[in-house]
Amino acid sequence: MKNNAWTIETADTNVLNKRQYIGFDAQFSIVTIMGITNIRGEYLFGEQPSLKSDFGSPKSNTYTMASPFNYIRKFSGGHVYLIQDIYATPITLVLKYSFLDPNTEVSGNDIKNKTDLSMNTFGFGAMWNINPALRLMAFYELTTNEKSTSIAGYDKDIKDDLFTLRLQYKF
Fold first, then answer.
1. Strand partners, 145
2. Sheet with 134-145, edge to edge strand ranges
Protein backbone atom coordinates (compact mmCIF):
# COMPACT_ATOMS: atom_id res chain seq x y z
CA MET A 1 0.00 0.00 0.00
CA LYS A 2 1.37 3.39 -0.98
CA ASN A 3 -0.34 6.77 -0.55
CA ASN A 4 -3.52 5.12 0.80
CA ALA A 5 -3.95 3.01 -2.36
CA TRP A 6 -3.19 -0.61 -3.13
CA THR A 7 -0.29 -1.03 -5.54
CA ILE A 8 0.60 -4.05 -7.64
CA GLU A 9 3.78 -5.83 -6.64
CA THR A 10 5.40 -8.70 -8.47
CA ALA A 11 7.70 -11.20 -6.83
CA ASP A 12 8.72 -14.82 -6.82
CA THR A 13 6.06 -17.27 -5.65
CA ASN A 14 5.38 -17.17 -1.89
CA VAL A 15 7.77 -14.29 -1.20
CA LEU A 16 4.80 -12.04 -0.34
CA ASN A 17 3.17 -14.67 1.90
CA LYS A 18 5.29 -13.90 4.93
CA ARG A 19 3.32 -13.68 8.15
CA GLN A 20 5.03 -11.62 10.78
CA TYR A 21 3.37 -11.36 14.19
CA ILE A 22 4.71 -9.83 17.38
CA GLY A 23 2.73 -10.16 20.57
CA PHE A 24 2.75 -9.61 24.29
CA ASP A 25 0.51 -11.08 26.93
CA ALA A 26 0.28 -10.73 30.68
CA GLN A 27 -1.95 -11.76 33.52
CA PHE A 28 -2.26 -10.83 37.15
CA SER A 29 -4.28 -12.47 39.93
CA ILE A 30 -4.92 -11.40 43.49
CA VAL A 31 -7.09 -12.76 46.29
CA THR A 32 -9.14 -10.07 48.05
CA ILE A 33 -12.13 -10.02 50.37
CA MET A 34 -14.30 -9.96 47.21
CA GLY A 35 -12.77 -13.20 45.88
CA ILE A 36 -10.15 -13.87 43.22
CA THR A 37 -9.54 -11.00 40.78
CA ASN A 38 -7.86 -11.78 37.44
CA ILE A 39 -6.66 -9.26 34.88
CA ARG A 40 -5.51 -10.70 31.56
CA GLY A 41 -4.39 -8.95 28.42
CA GLU A 42 -2.77 -9.50 25.05
CA TYR A 43 -1.51 -7.18 22.29
CA LEU A 44 -0.57 -8.37 18.80
CA PHE A 45 0.72 -6.52 15.75
CA GLY A 46 2.52 -7.33 12.53
CA GLU A 47 1.90 -8.13 8.88
CA GLN A 48 -0.78 -10.46 7.52
CA PRO A 49 -0.96 -11.68 3.90
CA SER A 50 -4.55 -11.98 2.79
CA LEU A 51 -7.07 -11.71 0.01
CA LYS A 52 -8.62 -8.36 -0.84
CA SER A 53 -11.96 -9.23 0.77
CA ASP A 54 -10.76 -11.41 3.68
CA PHE A 55 -8.36 -10.58 6.51
CA GLY A 56 -7.87 -14.27 7.39
CA SER A 57 -4.80 -16.22 6.35
CA PRO A 58 -5.12 -17.60 2.82
CA LYS A 59 -5.51 -21.36 2.55
CA SER A 60 -2.85 -23.25 0.62
CA ASN A 61 -5.26 -23.98 -2.25
CA THR A 62 -5.71 -20.23 -2.90
CA TYR A 63 -2.06 -19.82 -3.87
CA THR A 64 -2.70 -19.58 -7.59
CA MET A 65 -1.58 -17.09 -10.18
CA ALA A 66 -5.25 -16.64 -11.17
CA SER A 67 -6.16 -15.20 -7.77
CA PRO A 68 -3.14 -13.50 -6.21
CA PHE A 69 -3.42 -12.60 -2.55
CA ASN A 70 -0.67 -10.04 -2.32
CA TYR A 71 -2.57 -7.82 0.08
CA ILE A 72 -0.09 -7.39 2.90
CA ARG A 73 -1.86 -5.67 5.75
CA LYS A 74 -0.16 -4.19 8.79
CA PHE A 75 -2.50 -4.94 11.68
CA SER A 76 -2.87 -4.26 15.38
CA GLY A 77 -5.17 -5.89 17.90
CA GLY A 78 -5.63 -6.96 21.46
CA HIS A 79 -7.90 -7.64 24.39
CA VAL A 80 -8.13 -7.10 28.14
CA TYR A 81 -10.24 -9.13 30.59
CA LEU A 82 -11.26 -8.36 34.16
CA ILE A 83 -12.55 -11.55 35.81
CA GLN A 84 -13.95 -11.34 39.33
CA ASP A 85 -14.99 -14.39 41.35
CA ILE A 86 -17.62 -13.40 43.89
CA TYR A 87 -16.44 -14.64 47.30
CA ALA A 88 -18.24 -17.69 48.70
CA THR A 89 -20.58 -17.97 45.69
CA PRO A 90 -20.39 -19.97 42.44
CA ILE A 91 -20.66 -16.71 40.43
CA THR A 92 -17.93 -15.07 38.33
CA LEU A 93 -18.34 -11.67 36.64
CA VAL A 94 -16.45 -10.84 33.45
CA LEU A 95 -15.63 -7.57 31.64
CA LYS A 96 -13.80 -7.63 28.30
CA TYR A 97 -12.50 -5.02 25.87
CA SER A 98 -11.03 -6.03 22.51
CA PHE A 99 -9.97 -4.22 19.36
CA LEU A 100 -8.70 -5.08 15.90
CA ASP A 101 -7.41 -2.78 13.20
CA PRO A 102 -6.78 -5.09 10.23
CA ASN A 103 -5.04 -2.34 8.24
CA THR A 104 -3.27 0.32 10.30
CA GLU A 105 -2.18 2.19 7.17
CA VAL A 106 -5.66 3.53 6.33
CA SER A 107 -8.57 4.88 8.35
CA GLY A 108 -11.92 6.60 7.98
CA ASN A 109 -12.90 7.69 4.50
CA ASP A 110 -9.56 6.54 3.06
CA ILE A 111 -10.78 2.94 3.49
CA LYS A 112 -12.22 1.49 0.27
CA ASN A 113 -12.80 -2.12 1.42
CA LYS A 114 -14.87 -3.26 4.44
CA THR A 115 -12.17 -5.82 5.30
CA ASP A 116 -9.95 -2.90 6.38
CA LEU A 117 -12.42 -1.41 8.89
CA SER A 118 -11.35 -1.55 12.54
CA MET A 119 -13.59 -2.91 15.30
CA ASN A 120 -13.87 -2.33 19.05
CA THR A 121 -15.84 -4.63 21.33
CA PHE A 122 -16.89 -4.17 24.94
CA GLY A 123 -18.35 -7.25 26.61
CA PHE A 124 -19.79 -8.14 29.99
CA GLY A 125 -21.24 -11.27 31.46
CA ALA A 126 -21.49 -13.78 34.24
CA MET A 127 -20.68 -17.44 34.81
CA TRP A 128 -22.46 -19.73 37.22
CA ASN A 129 -20.46 -22.79 38.25
CA ILE A 130 -23.43 -25.07 38.91
CA ASN A 131 -21.14 -27.91 40.00
CA PRO A 132 -17.52 -28.90 39.24
CA ALA A 133 -18.52 -30.32 35.85
CA LEU A 134 -21.29 -27.93 34.75
CA ARG A 135 -21.11 -24.19 34.05
CA LEU A 136 -23.63 -21.72 32.59
CA MET A 137 -22.36 -18.54 30.96
CA ALA A 138 -24.26 -15.48 29.73
CA PHE A 139 -22.29 -12.83 27.84
CA TYR A 140 -23.21 -9.72 25.85
CA GLU A 141 -20.87 -8.00 23.37
CA LEU A 142 -21.30 -4.44 22.09
CA THR A 143 -19.35 -4.18 18.83
CA THR A 144 -18.53 -0.87 17.16
CA ASN A 145 -17.05 -0.74 13.68
CA GLU A 146 -15.04 2.05 12.09
CA LYS A 147 -17.15 4.33 9.92
CA SER A 148 -16.37 5.26 6.30
CA THR A 149 -18.49 7.13 3.79
CA SER A 150 -16.41 5.45 1.05
CA ILE A 151 -18.12 2.08 1.66
CA ALA A 152 -21.87 1.71 1.20
CA GLY A 153 -23.64 0.91 4.46
CA TYR A 154 -20.65 1.68 6.69
CA ASP A 155 -21.26 5.39 7.23
CA LYS A 156 -22.67 4.40 10.64
CA ASP A 157 -22.23 1.56 13.10
CA ILE A 158 -23.54 -1.82 11.93
CA LYS A 159 -25.96 -3.43 14.39
CA ASP A 160 -23.96 -6.56 15.19
CA ASP A 161 -24.03 -6.81 18.98
CA LEU A 162 -24.10 -10.40 20.21
CA PHE A 163 -25.65 -12.24 23.17
CA THR A 164 -24.30 -15.69 24.02
CA LEU A 165 -25.83 -18.20 26.42
CA ARG A 166 -23.60 -21.24 26.82
CA LEU A 167 -23.89 -24.39 28.89
CA GLN A 168 -20.55 -26.20 29.34
CA TYR A 169 -20.06 -29.72 30.62
CA LYS A 170 -16.62 -31.12 31.51
CA PHE A 171 -16.08 -34.84 31.20
1. 119
2. 20-32, 35-50, 71-85, 91-101, 119-131, 134-145, 162-169
Q: What domains sit in the chain, N to C, each tagged with a CATH number?
A: 15-169 (2.40.160.10)
CA–CA separation, 121 vs 143, rounded Å? 4
Q: Is the dihedral of CA 9, 10, 12, 13 positive or negative?
A: positive
* Cβ within 8 Å of residue 53, ≥6 positions away: 113, 114, 115
| pLDDT mean by block of 10 residues, the chain; 171 residues | 68 65 97 95 91 68 54 92 96 98 86 87 98 97 92 89 97 91
What per-residue confidence (pLDDT) applies to 96?
A: 98
